[in-house]
């Protein structure tokens, strides 16, 4: 337990004195270094969290939270499966789909695409594609026979617009007198969407469920049922519960499996960035070592006097630990206030800097995300604070221990 005497002496040693102004300057630089490191860590991790959230929302605006598929790539009696899924309290929407590979061609231009057959009404319950239409409407798929909706990048590369024709060929052959030939069909472009993810905007073509069933010759079967959940982070658990309640074998997948590599890469980047920026805090924290060593050397006579007055070595140790902790706490608190303030206002600060200097960090013509998002997570702030305080304490222990080992007789011999 820290007594008032050790606390008062430790706090007094942190105050500037004329003869040890250099020591005070090093203490100040240590405080500012810790504050800068903590502020940078909180801000950078918040921005990375913001980018991750933005990308996740855009990706899951088109991808399902969870999907139930048949074992042989087709799902018979999908309506009963959909009804069972909707009985789960965490499921807020379900939609059947038919999916396969295809080749779109216009004149001499040909591009490989993912073909997805959807029910426009049900699809609006599980994805945001209907809200991301820049030309036409998703519902137009039901109003036109063999209509197709393309991603904006895909339509741009094919140089097609509304009302124009494209030829879709799928890798399933039809037997003709001339032999086995690929199955193909002419479609009319009825809509163009842009969700802000290159994967979908450049490689996805949407058909009506009716037309895709005819094209793939599936009859009343579908590839699977896509689900939207109230809590997407429970997707693995919910999808398994639905598969078990259906009482039959299903192949279950969810967004955590489909995009596992993508989100794992983001988490790895966050960890590496945390380690790199924590080195700033570590360097500043270990500046405390220099400060404390010089303080111990400067205060040897004071230590000797305190020892002769009955102070124990552990009391001397406490005095210098208090001084080091004060430096660490001040630096951490300054960085905490600055980092949280910056993280909460970075979306306003960046545009102000762009206007001031006439630059644009994320050009809308190059990046889909043209602003810098930020999401402050409490757990990140707590971890950064604890690590910073821990490093400050660690840097204090050795100099404080050396101070506690000062011998009064040796220190006072030449005083």
Give the biggest beta sheet. 6 strands, mixed, barrel
Count of helices? Answer: 15
Between the first and last Cα atoms, what is the distance in angstroms? 32 Å
Residue share in β-strands = 15-25%
Mean pLDDT: 79
Using only C-alpha atoms, the radius of gyration works out to 33 Å
Percent helix, as a range, is: 55-70%
Explain how this protein is built.
By secondary structure, this protein is α+β, with helices and mostly antiparallel strands. The chain folds into two domains: 4-58 and 262-412, no CATH class; 64-257, no CATH class. 55% of the residues lie in helices and 20% in strands. It contains 15 helices and ten strands. It has helices at residues 4-13, 21-60, 78-86, 120-126, 140-143, 152-158, 198-201, 209-216, 235-246, 255-258, 260-298, 300-308, 313-357, 378-404, 408-412, and strands at residues 66-69, 91-106, 109-118, 133-136, 147-151, 165-176, 179-193, 204-208, 224-229, 251-254. The chain has a six-stranded mixed beta barrel, surrounded by four helices. A hairpin with a 2-residue loop joins strand 6 and strand 7. Helix 11 (260-298) runs parallel beside helix 14 (378-404). The protein is elongated.
Q: How is the topology of this model organized?
A:
Blueprint: H1 4-13, H2 21-60, E1 66-69, H3 78-86, E2 91-106, E3 109-118, H4 120-126, E4 133-136, H5 140-143, E5 147-151, H6 152-158, E6 165-176, E7 179-193, H7 198-201, E8 204-208, H8 209-216, E9 224-229, H9 235-246, E10 251-254, H10 255-258, H11 260-298, H12 300-308, H13 313-357, H14 378-404, H15 408-412
Parallel strand pairs: 3-8, 5-7
Antiparallel strand pairs: 1-9, 1-10, 2-3, 2-6, 2-9, 4-7, 5-8, 6-7
């Amino acid at each position: 337990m820290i007594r008032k005497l050790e606390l008062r002496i430790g706090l007094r040693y942190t105050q500037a004195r004329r003869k040890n102004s250099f020591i005070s300057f090093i203490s100040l630089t240590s405080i500012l270094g810790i504050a800068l490191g903590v502020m940078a860590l909180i801000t950078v991790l918040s921005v990375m969290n913001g980018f991750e959230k933005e990308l996740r929302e855009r990706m899951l605006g088109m991808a399902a939270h969870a999907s139930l598929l048949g074992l042989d790539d087709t799902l018979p009696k999908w309506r009963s499966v959909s009804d069972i899924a909707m009985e789960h309290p965490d499921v807020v929407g379900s939609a059947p789909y038919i999916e396969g590979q295809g080749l779109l061609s216009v004149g001499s231009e040909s591009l490989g695409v993912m073909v997805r057959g959807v029910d426009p009404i049900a699809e609006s319950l599980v994805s945001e594609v209907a809200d991301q239409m820049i030309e036409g409407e998703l519902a137009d798929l039901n109003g036109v026979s063999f209509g197709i909706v393309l991603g904006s990048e895909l339509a741009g590369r094919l140089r097609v617009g509304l009302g124009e024709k494209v030829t879709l060929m799928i890798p399933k052959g039809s037997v003709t007198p001339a032999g086995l030939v690929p199955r193909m069909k002419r479609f009319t472009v009825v809509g163009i969407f842009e969700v802000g993810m290159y994967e979908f905007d450049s490689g996805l073509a949407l058909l009506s469920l009716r037309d895709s069933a005819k094209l793939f010759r599936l009859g009343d079967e579908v590839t699977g049922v896509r689900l939207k959940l109230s809590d997407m982070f429970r997707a693995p658990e919910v999808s398994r519960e639905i598969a078990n309640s259906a009482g039959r074998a299903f192949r279950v997948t969810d967004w955590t499996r489909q995009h596992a590599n993508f989100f794992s890469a983001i988490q790895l980047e966050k960890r590496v960035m945390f380690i790199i920026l924590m080195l700033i805090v570590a360097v500043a924290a270990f500046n405390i070592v220099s400060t404390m060593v010089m303080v111990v050397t400067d205060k040897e006579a004071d230590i000797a006097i305190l020892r002769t007055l009955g102070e124990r070595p552990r009391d001397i140790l406490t005095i210098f630990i208090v001084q080091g902790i004060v430096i660490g706490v001040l630096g951490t608190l300054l960085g905490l206030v600055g980092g949280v303030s910056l993280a909460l206002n970075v979306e306003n600060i960046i545009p102000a800097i762009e206007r001031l200097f006439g630059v644009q960090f994320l050009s809308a013509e190059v990046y889909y995300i043209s602003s810098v998002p930020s999401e402050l997570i409490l757990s990140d702030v707590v971890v950064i604070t604890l690590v910073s305080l821990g490093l400050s304490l660690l840097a204090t222990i050795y100099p404080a221990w050396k101070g506690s080992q000062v011998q009064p007789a040796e220190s006072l011999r030449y005083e």
